[in-house]
Amino acid sequence: MKEKLICIGNGMAGIRTIEELLKLAPDKYDLAVFGAEPYGNYNRILLSPVLAGEKTVDDIILNDEQWYIDNGITLHKAHTIVSIDRAKRQVHSDKGITASYDRLLLATGSNPFMIPVSGHTLPGVVSFRDIRDVHTMLEVAHQGQHAVVIGGGLLGLEAANGLLKQGMQVTVVHLLDSLMDRQLDKTAADLLKRSLEERGLTFLMEAETTAILGDTHVTGIRFKDGQEIPADLIVMAVGIRPNIELAKKAGLYCERGIVVNDTLQSYDPRIYAVGECVQHRRQLYGLVAPLFEQAKVCANHLANLGYSRYEGSVTSTKLKVTGIDLFSAGDFRGNENTDELVFQDPSQGIYKKLVIEDNRIKGAVLYGDTVDGAWYFQLMRDGVDISGQRDRLLFGQAHLGDSGHSEMTQPVAMMSNEAEICGCNGVCKGTIVNAIIEKKLFTLDEVRAHTKASSSCGSCTALVEQLLAFTSMPLS
Nearest to residue 9, comparing CAs of 258, 254, 300, 273? Predict the structure, then answer.
């Protein structure tokens, strides 16, 4: 008789865990999924291009309802689990369903932080976390003129760009003096700000929100210095908090997130957790690549192949704004023990900085030319000694050549087969090349379907396309 596995959360982390589990042990569990939203699993990372009008909601669906049927998964859409009875091993939904489990997977994600100023609950004040938020923003964009985005981080800038493309006048309000301060140094942030201003965005830096104005709908916003500006829509993009209320209510040990060990088990060994709700070795993760790495380890353990361990993730960041190339990874600020290698061409809007310690890359910021981002990230993650190529490192992999001498060629041709192309899904060059050759793939969509490369955040699309072109190139 099959064991029962319930997944609470129908998002990218939980469903990726189930996908991995189905590869390893397709017949081990009776599977059920409870999701609070009325959709199948969709790519939350691509909400930004949906808002910008570059994609539709259908374009970002990862697992439609037929996928659940085909895999024998019972899907409960628009069901919120309100309690877990650990003694009886049961979960209870807000629609009155009670389901039993042998193993439970918590993938409850995170909640947006809303600044608790007066007026923050008014209609027209939204976060940017799900399809419903995007629909709300698009409805207002078709009627209103002025949008204010609070937060100059990654998500806030993507929201601002999308609303600008929908024809709104957009002001970005940021508490600090530098955009994307968690990912960029001041030089790169200033280049980014200048580029976004040229597109039509307005910025209010070092501005603290004290009130949101309006009676029945938002009409404006007030700042600490007394300044007020009009707003038909206010988007708060000021951070997330792990959604741990259900776990805490069930008596699971939580700190900032649900505390898990290296096999993604909570303090109750029957209950696993993955994704943004998790705290592992005191670290929280909000990017997709670590979530997918957790999913692989968790699925491995659920399949009783418990040799795999999650030891944490090194992350990188790219901005999903068409026409802006930006890459950041690791410790880009450095300290008294680090050196900085810097290349800057202000007229071309290009800036590169590598932070080096003991002849190893510790961090990188690239703006305007990110083609070597994946290579730098691989060198950093693998702890490669770069002393032999330090003087040419900033010029990129294509300039080094196999012998270390200057030799221009396509960057993808220089990468080893073990080089990671798609960080989100952990897909290396060799996997993509083999799929292209063996399955005779000719399009980007075919490569995505067979390897998952470029199917999540899309930031590696250019590299995958280069690899597709290079691999398909006839031999001379």
Answer: 273
**pLDDT value for 425:** 82
Helix (H) or strand (E) holding 397: helix 397-400
How many angstroms separate the CA atoms of 322 and 164, rounded? 12
Structure token pair of residue 107: 């993938």
Token pair, residue 323, equals 């026409």
What DSSP string runs through 326-350? Answer: EEEEE--S--TT-EEEEEEEGGGTE
**Predicted pLDDT of residue 416:** 76
Q: Which segments of 109-244 does DSSP mark as H helices, in order? A: 131-141, 154-165, 186-199
Q: How many CB atoms neighbour CB 209 within 10 A?
A: 21
Q: At what angle do helices 12-24 and 288-302 cross, to 10 degrees?
A: 40
What is the pairing mode between strands 228-230 and 218-223? Answer: antiparallel
- Residue 68, by phi and psi: left (phi above 0), alpha (psi -120 to 50) or beta? alpha
Task: For the chain, list residues with pLDDT below 50.
Answer: 402-409, 475-476
Question: Regarding the domain with residue range 3-109+243-303, which homologous superfamily does it belong to in the CATH classification?
Answer: FAD/NAD(P)-binding domain (3.50.50.60)
408 alpha-carbon distance from chain centroid: 33
Q: How many CB atoms lie within 10 A of CB 344?
A: 15
| Tens digits of residue pLDDT in 300-317 | 999 999 789 999 998 888
Find the helix or strand (DSSP H, E) in which 447 lies.
Answer: helix 444-451
Token output for 221:
């916003």
The number of residues making up the chain comes to 476
pLDDT of res. 473: 63
Q: Are 14 and 108 in contact (CB under 8 A)?
A: no
| CA pair distance 381, 104, nearest whole angstrom | 32
Rounded CA separation 389/404 (Å): 7
Average pLDDT, the chain: 93
Sign of the C-alpha dihedral computed for residues 254, 260, 265 and 269 taken in this order? negative
Residue 401: per-residue pLDDT: 53
The string of pLDDT tens digits covering residues 402-418 is 433 333 345 677 777 87
Q: Which residues contact 150 (CB under 8 A, 6 or more apart)?
A: 115, 156, 173, 209, 221, 234, 235, 236, 237, 238
Q: pTM score, two decimals?
A: 0.90
* Domain range summary for the chain, segments of one domain joined by +: 3-109+243-303, 113-240, 325-401, 404-475
Domain 113-240 fold is FAD/NAD(P)-binding domain (3.50.50)
Q: For residues 307 and 101, give the distance between their C-alpha atoms in angstroms, rounded to a whole number.
A: 24
Q: Is 294 in contact with 265 (CB distance < 8 Å)?
A: no
Summarised one tens digit per residue, pLDDT across range 33-87 is 999 999 999 999 999 999 999 999 999 999 999 999 999 999 999 999 999 999 9
